[in-house]
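Study the following:
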Amino acid sequence: MATPATSSRNRALSAEELDRFGAELDALRARTLATLGARDARYIRNVVKAVRYSNLIGRALLFAAAIAGGLWLADSAVGWLFWVLWALGALSLGLGKILENMELGHNVIHGQYDWLGDPQLNGKSYDWDIVGTADNWRYTHNFRHHTYTNVRGLDDDIGYGLLRIFPEQKWKPFYLAQPVIAVVFALLFQWGIAIQNLKLGRWWHGKMSSRQLRVTSAPVVRKMGRQLAKDYVIYPALAGPFFLPVLLGNLVANGLRNVWTYVIIFCGHFTANAETFPKECVKNESRGHWYLRQLRGSSNLRGGFLMNVMSGNLSHQIEHHFFPDVPANRYAEMAKEVRAICARYGQHYNTGTLLTQFGQVCWRIVRHAFPSRPPKFAPLRHADATA
């Protein structure tokens, strides 16, 4: 197994059991896809409306705050009105950005709603409201991360090239600074996502020419420019001389979205019971073995409807990694069957509260900033068979 913490929680499966495990999960996916219809279409279109109105209300409140700020200059008694309007505007805009990023953009880009035939919800053409391009995300996330989940050397999401989160990662003195780096990374998370596929480390070490870097980075730079212009030039300029409250409101809204996204994503793969795997485990990997690796590399969050929506249903990270192309609003009901299947095969279903799971993530970040030895255990093998 991949960590001592989980090795005692999972029963080793024979090759036959592993095949049945995969077949049961495949059958659940097929049953769910067969029932997609009006309620799923209604759900995602309601999310689109929620994003639109949250953004509209947030921007309206920020403009109102800008006007109140002008009145404040003339009458100090209305100063409270500025702060109330500004805070509500930043929160509403932040909510809209979170919903667009998590429940709309991320899930649509996975192709979860391609069956609708709606060009606005097409996974191959949708672009989202962050500085990173959807095309890069389709490669780094949809392909590499979901194919090689938590496989060391193949999944770039393990630490994102900045953090040492697992003891199997080689320690360097640079990691001593990672508790601080982790905070900065959370605040600027969309920027880290934007440059993830540029391979700046290769350029820094002379393995990529500056010309190659310019070519590969051109779409990202253009997207960054459009986002910066929209959030920090165009919308603030519409407020005229009171542009500053609008600019700061946009900055806070983006920060709220960045930190929330960081927390949810890190809780999905870097808790105490999450595992990493060596490259050799994916050689000749069967369907059942792939499901098993997704299960042991993922973590869920307990919570109700609000948690599910605000996390883009990544509160069901296990189900998302099992079924990334199934509409995420179905994960909560699928989770009941997934958990029962895992129990039948003696596999630990990793779930916990947001506070518990993120606390474990923070501990990993602090602990593995310092030298630590990889645990002594047998890694997950192909077929994970006892026979």
User: Anything to note?
Assistant: Residues 4-35+130-384 form one domain.
